[in-house]
Specification:
Mean pLDDT of chain A: 84
Transmembrane segments (chains A, B): 187-206
Organism (chains A, B): Bradyrhizobium frederickii
CATH topology of the largest domain in chain A: Tetracycline Repressor, domain 2
Oligomer: homodimer
Strand content of chain A: under 5%
Number of domains of chain A: 2
Largest sheet of chain A: none
Number of strands of chain A: 0
DNA-binding region (chains A, B): 59-78
Structural class of chain A: mainly alpha
Region (Disordered) (chains A, B): 1-29
Number of helices of chain A: 11
GO molecular function (chains A, B): DNA-binding transcription factor activity; transcription cis-regulatory region binding
Low-confidence stretches of chain A: 1-28
Radius of gyration of chain A: 23 Å
Chain lengths: 228, 228
DNA sequence: TGACGATGACTGACTAGTCAGTCATAAATG
DNA sequence: CATTTATGACTGACTAGTCAGTCATCGTCA
């Protein structure tokens, strides 16, 4: 009468019951480890779906399917769709911030420092899943104040502060002319943000060489690099 | 039973005479005119709702209510929700482009030209409903290729071309040093775009003086303005 | 060590609710 | 009165969230 046959079919059909052979899955460590793995799978899957479809249009069924988990399982890890989305942003962003905060030793010219930063950003954000996350936050931010707040606090305000510090250093060292720039570090990062958005929206129409663009922008700020 | 109180304040100044005074409402011109009004009301309402909630989360019932029409009426003007959204973007953007394309006579320095442009942009886009539209397009673009295409064709590519022209002029006239800038007009507009997004997302955390920021940015490109 | 009951992670059918789109009916118009 | 336009109750498809039941794993004890 009941249709519980699914799991049975799978298990019983496999005559031999070596865990490894039967379970197409993992070395099946202990429960806790498996749970963590599953949670990670859900986060990963949810990420993809939310980026591809936005919050409202994403179905939890799809996330579950992609993560290889039953829908109910999601609710063992997250309270509901909304808080799942909010946690998601935290989960994905925190390690990135952590990595970037571990800044390289301040050696060399300010331009070199910023260039290193830009190179990182290029490699790690522009054109990657993380870049899409940024677009997603721009998209959903107004409907998720908690997300916008978090993003401002953890990423934007820190980033702005760091850039301001760099700019002031550059001014002090005479590398940067324009003193007012320190008041608007946004100007420094604007082209990078534009590059992120451009890749998501217009890359197919007109590919953008983000690296070259950022170089030109830095030339604008520091003066043309002399190949002397 | 019905609450027809909605379309009151509109155009009651029309030559109303014959209809009984009972209709405190519109003397209403002819059918075609009313239809256009309604269509406009729907577009306006849809705009608000889509901006506030995004495409997927917007309910047609809400649009209808806000526009003061029945839901069925929407379907007299638009095929379905999706094409409504796409048409909407066109309807709202076309006049803006038209207005901006009617550029002022190229008098004065390039910097003055661009400053006039920026001033316009500031007044007409940043911090207005139209700014939100830009954010909406960024948000929904990936899910609406038609919208992204249209926006690229009508706004982005034209804007980029126009900016490139201005930059080249500035280089020719010796106002702009950095020749490579002509290859990336995006750099010129990046801070303006950032300002649009900033106002939507972070204004409540840290208000941004967009005008001043744009001035600083232009100083960066043209050199500090001499108070001549 | 091996057997066995307790545990709780996991499942997916199900409920309750939502909303795009339809259409029979009503109002307005000419 | 015939025709065009508007209405909003209704339908059917879809989905967030639930929960009774299952079973792999774990702790315990002979």
């Amino acid at each position: 009468m009941t249709k519980k046959s699914t799991r049975l079919a799978k298990t019983s059909a496999e005559g031999g019951d070596h865990p490894s052979a039967t379970r197409a899955e993992m070395p099946a460590s202990n429960r806790a480890a498996r749970a963590l793995e599953r949670r990670a799978a859900i986060v990963e899957a949810a990420m993809e779906e939310f980026i591809a479809r936005g919050f409202a249009a994403t179905r939890l069924d799809d996330i579950a399917k992609r993560a290889g988990v039953a829908k109910g399982t999601i609710y063992l890890h997250f309270k509901d769709k909304e808080s799942m989305f909010e946690e998601l942003v935290r989960i994905v962003i925190v390690p990135v911030v952590a990595r970037l905060t571990a800044l390289p030793p301040p050696t060399g010219s300010v331009r070199d420092l910023i260039e290193a930063f830009a190179g990182n950003f290029l490699k790690e954000v522009i054109g990657t899943r993380r870049g899409d996350l940024v677009r997603l936050i721009v998209a959903e931010g107004p409907r998720f104040p908690a997300v916008a707040d978090f993003y401002y606090r953890e990423v934007v305000s820190r980033g702005i502060a760091a850039m301001r510090g760099l700019i002031e250093l550059g001014i002090a060292r005479g590398e940067i002319r324009q003193k007012d720039l320190a008041r608007y570090p946004q100007i420094l990062v604007a082209p990078a943000m534009i590059a992120v958005i451009w890749q998501s929206l217009f890359a197919r129409h007109a590919p953008l060489d983000a690296q070259d663009m950022l170089r030109v922008h830095l030339d604008l700020i520091f003066g043309e690099r002399r190949t002397t």
